[in-house]
Amino acid sequence: MERVRASNRLLRYSCNKSLFDRRYNPSSQNSIHNSPSGYSHGFVNKCGDFHLYNGNHKWSVQTCFGFLRYRGETFRDSVEKGSLDSRCRGFGSLAAKVERNPSFSTLNADDISYFKGVLGEKTVVQEEERLAIANTDWMHKYKGSSKLLLQPQSTEEVSQILKYCNSRCLAVVPQGGNTGLVGGSVPVFDEVIINMSLMNNIISFDQVSGILVCEAGCILENLMTFLDNQGFIMPLDLGAKGSCQIGGNVSTNAGGLRLVRYGSLHGNVLGIEAVLADGNVIDMLGTLRKDNTGYDLKHLFIGSEGSLGIVTKVSILTPPKLFSVNVAFLACQDYFSCQKLLVEAKRKLGEILSAFEFLDSQSLDLVLNHLDGIRNPLPPTMHNFYVLIETTGSDETYDRQKLEAFLLHAMEAGLVSDGALAQDINQASSFWRIREGVPEALMKAGAVYKYDLSLPVEKMYDLVEEMRKRLSDSANIIGYGHLGDGNLHLNISAPQYDDRILMQIEPFVYEWTSKHRGSISAEHGLGLMKANEIFYSKPTDTVTLMASIKKMLDPKGILNPYKVLPHSFSSS
Amino acid sequence: MERVRASNRLLRYSCNKSLFDRRYNPSSQNSIHNSPSGYSHGFVNKCGDFHLYNGNHKWSVQTCFGFLRYRGETFRDSVEKGSLDSRCRGFGSLAAKVERNPSFSTLNADDISYFKGVLGEKTVVQEEERLAIANTDWMHKYKGSSKLLLQPQSTEEVSQILKYCNSRCLAVVPQGGNTGLVGGSVPVFDEVIINMSLMNNIISFDQVSGILVCEAGCILENLMTFLDNQGFIMPLDLGAKGSCQIGGNVSTNAGGLRLVRYGSLHGNVLGIEAVLADGNVIDMLGTLRKDNTGYDLKHLFIGSEGSLGIVTKVSILTPPKLFSVNVAFLACQDYFSCQKLLVEAKRKLGEILSAFEFLDSQSLDLVLNHLDGIRNPLPPTMHNFYVLIETTGSDETYDRQKLEAFLLHAMEAGLVSDGALAQDINQASSFWRIREGVPEALMKAGAVYKYDLSLPVEKMYDLVEEMRKRLSDSANIIGYGHLGDGNLHLNISAPQYDDRILMQIEPFVYEWTSKHRGSISAEHGLGLMKANEIFYSKPTDTVTLMASIKKMLDPKGILNPYKVLPHSFSSS
């Protein structure tokens, strides 16, 4: 009897299109999207935890309030008092303070002349408006005061720039698409900005092996479009794909939506060309899937956030494009069911599983309340958790049958309370839009404290519940993320920034993560924001070893200073 | 008409079991295997380029002749004259010479007492017989003269050993299963052998995430058996699995048969615990799929062949076990068809493709002529190339249909001339036995010069053909390997070792590989054999950087000396 009921239920949402249509309106705004290439993965405007940079950089004090602080004052206090200068600046949550390294030189007219001699007039940028944009991250959370932006067009130019800066002890910040979330790609003080946008050539693509070689400034979405025409895809996909650059992706070891299927960039990047602080070009640009000739040094540069060298070229293994994509949006009664569903999905869907995302009911409510054109594909019954499952394979009919059989089994086993299976690409997009709309909804809801944590899957939601107990009614606690990768996005939404709330969150959230051997930065990196928090995830000996490597590769510390490593280590 | 013919042909080998059976005798020796666990991946005695170590270490001068040379004399000359001592020894192909580093101390009685105090009597081994085994690699190609073998049982013991050795300037060689092919795991002179066999505990396994944590001395096959019971598999599989240890696999970045599906260990290893030369324990033993908190230092130790630190624990992501395995053995008329078949297989078989191996007709002939119980599953028509395709998925019926449809298409397109699809696990094993029997057959055929190269797939076989032109009738040139990974095993078989042949091969083979930006060691590593050849695959600046890292982590150079880096660099 139970089996029959479950079957009927599955049929209702997977096959009865008219019934499905009554719950869901695919013509609603923002929910329909087809990629320009004609091929769509069924995703629209994937934000992940990013918003695309829109070029509109009006400074919003309110947005920053609570994030930027300076000697115990808030950034707003400082701005009002005019006390914020470039000698000493504090960022981040509770205690991060940083002073300009006095050993760095200050830019002078001779420097500008030198750079113009090497790069030409046009790519040595001193215009205030362009500098204002490059000095600020897209969230308007971090703001530097650089007076110079350079746009090299070749590895040789990057090499000459760094050689000169190193000899002059001029600090630099490498900048890709500037879409990061931890203040890694903007100057902290007056560092010279090395913008990689003009190094945007595809160098080669091998149709047999699927190996792409390109310059670091290639925008991720452009690479995706190029590969789409070749019948391949990038092994990573991010919300910021329209702006972020592959060099930045590699330098920050970007995670994103395809990691559960294709793994991290440490597995997919086959080679790198990087320029060291002294201008030395290190050619690790292999195009081989296997190469065991000595230490694999490229991995040092993957995820080092531009602090060990500037990535100038990348070689990457790209998987063949698979045409069959199915997306289901499911409701689960409790977190344990979500976990069990994940285990079952890995086993039953096996090789076609390409995403397993989750959000709690608070996340869904937030999206439904704050974003236009988004509807809940399920009847408005109370469910505690929602899971989005995507499969990608090479056979439309078979993949669909397989997913339907899996869902039937999951309902019979009581793991899934209800669910909807997208009937076309628009519906698939609209399901993705719910998951990806969470960060946008959070920004609209008011102040938000964002944490990007890796935790053992079984412990992950405990933190959300503990945080709810700690904060009771003073904030709305939201948990969502990449369950398939053990990556929780914990977000605390409040009407406005409030130090009392912040003190309830930190350092508790880091201590809790550390206690469970989690990572305080799953995919966003440390940047400036969490450089001093590294010890919550890494032991002192390991951090000391990192600092030794930094010292060896960049003895004067000119590359992206104040980031990644704790300030006490990098200044010593 | 062509389509009908192709269909009929496919049906003949894929469905008509009785016809298939006439060509193939599954009851023949060596061709049947079921794993003790009851689950078999359809492989038997996977040798890859390895043979399992069998404990029978009688020294064979004939086997070594031509490999070991000492001041211009052959090893045999030296043995006859009694002139081989431990002050200066040459190994490898044409010119590798190495002298004992005079800064290393010589073991004394106080050292032995110290180690006995730390480890106890039983795990401080001085027995000649046991030392003789540990001093020699399984090929009997390399032979050290160590007087001491230590068997630590904990990370703390490894740490104490290294701390002491570093202070005394005693060189050490870490040893796992000692199954390597480049002399990386045996002493060159009198280095203390640190054998990891007793650190063989599984520490934890997470059923939700599939993350396994274990000590470095766990034998790969034991981990496979453990995981099999949990419904998971190791992401790597090697011929040496019955002897090799996970610490050695990680330290050499072992490749093997599952790489085409699951990628390299850089993608699958989540964490490492390693002990540095000074005894410092570096805890990088994360169990998280995503962790962007600082430089990902574990990658330095993956593939550094024990020269930067001794890996003591490993955390690894294991994929769920999939039950449906199909294997096809196909004939192709030319190398271009093999390449095209690979591209098609990636696209059409997509997510279920798990192996794509190739061998030329010379390889097949060698196997058929030298190994007992192996039959050609195809009629004895002349074909130039053979391809083994394996699929692994979660649905027996569907996967089979998919493979059959692919094969039908490949025959219609003229890519495949003939083929056989295994009807059961025994037939699948016998197909694998052909591919994996090549190294064994080569050893039986006489002298063999072995090269493990990564090359762009489209260039790969050109080298085999050029080598045939160079050597004309003086040797039998064999090409086989992991086509799906761009990894060629080039083997030159001759009745006996002959310097004239060797001079025709080297340095030509390395120069040719270098010219095509290939790797002179795809998966075997550099060890002692190719330490001096590194420049064929890596530029000087990169090697210099490697040497700086070695110097930083192991200033006295006590860890696995004379290996990986060129002798000129490591002695400076």
UniProtKB/TrEMBL annotation, chains A, B:
Residues 142-321 form the FAD-binding PCMH-type domain. Its cofactor is FAD. One of its GO terms (molecular function) is (R)-2-hydroxyglutarate dehydrogenase activity. SUPFAM superfamilies: FAD-binding/transporter-associated domain-like, FAD-linked oxidases, C-terminal domain. Its EC number is 1.1.99.39. It catalyses: (R)-2-hydroxyglutarate + A = 2-oxoglutarate + AH2. GO terms for cellular component: mitochondrion. Keywords: FAD, Flavoprotein, Oxidoreductase. Belongs to the FAD-binding oxidoreductase/transferase type 4 family. This is D-2-hydroxyglutarate dehydrogenase. It comes from Pyrus ussuriensis x Pyrus communis.
